[in-house]
Amino acid sequence: MFDKIVLSMATLRLISGSLEIIAALLMLRFNQVEKALIVNSSLALVGPIVLLTTTTIGFIGVAEKLSWGKIGWVVLGISCLMFGILKK
């Protein structure tokens, strides 16, 4: 039996990976650079959303085991990741 939190995180990653494969197949199907770029750009939205969601689910799972100081470090680390990903 799997832990509910681990199962949720893994399921989100499987869905995300499936979307990546579907996107690659769509690019091959369209066989046009412009359309492939549109499909690729759409994936740029999915990545950060999946990262935030899986991290939040995992964080909720371990939050009760962490001190406030460690929670602060985790939040700071996630903030740095999101700043690096989303900053243009």
UniProtKB/TrEMBL annotation:
Keywords: Membrane, Transmembrane, Transmembrane helix. InterPro entries: Uncharacterised_YqhV. It comes from the Bacteria. The chain crosses the membrane at residues 6-30, 42-62, 68-86. Pfam families: DUF2619. This is DUF2619 domain-containing protein. It comes from Paenibacillus selenitireducens.
